[in-house]
């Protein structure tokens, strides 16, 4: 997903805001069988985290401001779901750390003041290498010989991009906003200290850091269940 604004209904209950890592959740919401969560409005901007007033690239601040104005003015929207790629705050000296904290505060406070329930989706695991090498393909030696990288059976810590600084950033927000629902997809993607690449024989990742449509469905289905039974 690059940049996208649209809605599946005139009375959306869920608003999705952020970059492509928020956009990847759209398929899961739109196809979910729970009628409370499959009516979606989306504001997705490539490389635009859902932080009010922050221009990580030109026009991000405008996109998020327009989105929040629309979301707060739409009475049917009950949930604001936000997400973004971890790399904005992946290192200790990231230039975006303090700006993003301030921007997320503005986003959260604006939504909360409008009576919306905020859901922060923590970024999914990012793989060191693309999962493409795990997919059987006709006429490929790896397929004929059934030789696949070990991480295809489950990505261990060494197969994942480190996210220590990002997770500190998330914990900071979590401590500041106790009413925001923080959802960690690792709960469902990474049982027993390894992250699954496949579920039900379907690849959960579309590339090294985005979910596939199956991954989107798998994660959002779990998220919806947790929101339905807090």
Overview of the structural elements:
With 230 residues, the chain is an alpha/beta fold. Helices cover 34% and strands 13% of the residues. The protein contains eight helices and eight strands. The strands form two sheets. The chain has a six-stranded mixed sheet with strand order 1-3-2-4-5-6. Helix 4 links the parallel strand 4 and strand 5. The mean pLDDT is 90.
**Proportion of residues in extended strands:** 5-15%
Structural class: alpha/beta
Question: Biggest β-sheet, characterized?
Answer: 6 strands, mixed
Cα distance spanning the termini: 30 Å
Descriptive keywords:
230 residues; alpha/beta; 6-stranded mixed sheet; two-stranded antiparallel ribbon; 34% helix; globular
Describe, in short, the structure shown.
The chain has 230 residues and is α/β, with parallel strands linked by helices. It has helices at 20-23, 26-30, 60-73, 97-113, 141-145, 164-176, 186-189, 213-228; strands spanning 4-7, 14-18, 40-44, 79-83, 117-121, 181-183, 198-199, 202-203.
Task: Provide the fold topology.
Layout: E1 4-7, E2 14-18, H1 20-23, H2 26-30, E3 40-44, H3 60-73, E4 79-83, H4 97-113, E5 117-121, H5 141-145, H6 164-176, E6 181-183, H7 186-189, E7 198-199, E8 202-203, H8 213-228
Parallel strand pairs: 2-3, 2-4, 4-5, 5-6
Antiparallel strand pairs: 1-3, 7-8
